[in-house]
Amino acid sequence: MSTSLLSVRGLSVHYGHVAAVRGIDLDLAPGQITTLVGANGAGKSSTLLALSGLIAAAGGSVHFDGADISAMAAHTRVQRGLVQVAEGRATLTTLTVRENLELGAYSRKANGAQRARDMDNIFDLFPRLQERQTSLAGNLSGGEQQMLAIGRALMARPKLLLLDEPSMGLAPLIVQEVFRTLRRINAQGLTIFLVEQNVRQALKISQHAYVLENGEIVLQGPGNALLADPKVQAAYLGG
């Protein structure tokens, strides 16, 4: 085994006879932001769902933190420290902000003091959530719901945070705030795997990146190198 926190070999995802992901390999170094970029329908979300155990892979292996998790249930992967923020945020709209955050710590069976410390850390990252902690999640703006979704995931104390399109549908200023927060939590040591259509922003903050086309990895390398790559510029950056 390598020193990767997450090592994927030959991952395939099928929907009936349609191959969405075609035998890809990935390696995520601990403490880094790794990005997976590509067009709509390239297989990015399917890759994350398979890594999280939310859909069954058609083939391949997934090793996380030194263990083979290929056959593990989704909730077991969360307990081991692999936590996903889903596309569309998936906040529980009839619960308050605080209740949503508390649910994030459920898999850890954390005691009250631990939850309180973690909650304080989330409020430090997202002061707006502290202001709105008694509000129903359904009454939050799109940006606030994205903050809540990330905060809830962080309450699980992940070793690896998977994010699926965190900038989708957000105003440009909020997008900038989200990416600044991702840099901040990564600087604290959290490994991040980011799926994102905002290719420019994603590559700017990534130490390593993969380009996915039609379910296959076609390019990989340091984020700044791919940002300068003529093929990436032409395909995704309007170059």
Strand content range: 25-35%
Number of helices: 10
Q: Cα-atom Rg, whole angstroms?
A: 17 Å
Q: What is the CA-CA span between the terminal residues?
A: 39 Å
The low-confidence parts are none
Which structural class is indicated by helix and strand composition? alpha/beta
Specify the overall morphology: globular
Helix and strand sequence: EEEHEEHEHHHHEHEHEEHH
Kindly state the percentage of residues in helix: 25-40%
State the total count of DSSP E strands. Answer: 10
Instruction: Give the strand order of the largest sheet, numbering strands 1, 2, ... along the chain.
Output: 6-7-8-3-9-10
Describe the structure.
The chain is an alpha/beta fold and 239 residues long. The strands form 2 sheets. A 6-stranded mixed sheet has the order 6-7-8-3-9-10, with helices on both faces. Strands 2-1-4-5 form a 4-stranded antiparallel sheet, covered by helices on one side. The protein is 38% helix and 25% strand. The longest helix has 16 residues. Helix 3 runs parallel beside helix 6.
Question: What would you say about this model in short?
Answer:
The protein has 239 residues and is of the alpha/beta class.
Key terms for this structure?
single chain, 239 residues, alpha/beta, six-stranded mixed beta sheet, four-stranded antiparallel beta sheet, 10 strands
